[in-house]
Amino acid sequence: MNLIKRKSAFPSVFSDDFDSLFQGFFRPVSGSDVAGKKHNMPAVDIDERENSYLLVAELPGFDKDDISVAIHDGQLSIKAEHSEENEEKQSSGNVLKERRFGSYFRSFNFGQSISEQDIMAKYDKGVLELTIPKSPMSEQKAKQIEIR
Questions:
Q1: Among candidates 82, 78, 90, which has minimal Cα distance to 62?
Q2: For residue 132, with 0-12 CB atoms within 10 Å meaning exposed, 13-18 middle and 19 or more buried, which class applies?
Q3: What sign does the CA torsion over 111, 114, 117, 123 have?
Q4: pLDDT, tens only, 26-64
Q5: Distance between CA 15 and CA 8 in Å, rounded?
Q6: Structural domain of residue 110, as residue ranges?
Q7: pTM
Q8: Which of 108, 109, 111, 115 has the alpha carbon at shortest distance from 51?
Q9: Is residue 60 part of a domain?
């Protein structure tokens, strides 16, 4: 049996836009670097508070020692790396293998608005929390400039 693809006699102006919206919906967000390692992007929330930012990143399955957080010139980087355990019996009984191995990487530019020396990190049950204090410079209010 052959299926015949039919086009609507009345094509919608938005049909291409609507289709492209869902093209990659079911594919995981991932990429690869030059070394061929898989990079996945962890889900991250950033909340702004009065004197700090709270960054919460989901990193399930990682040990604390697998995670690296670095800051340089206002650029905050979070990296976590898994490596697959290569066992000889690995291929003998696998029926389904969905666990991912590779690395996670996210980078955020806070510029000069934060106090880099006072950042605090906590990791518990797959969730990384960073408390990122604002620098006194960032607390300045916006100033309206008069145009002459």
A1: 82
A2: buried
A3: negative
A4: 444 444 444 444 456 778 999 999 999 999 999 988 899
A5: 10
A6: 41-83+101-139
A7: 0.60
A8: 115
A9: yes
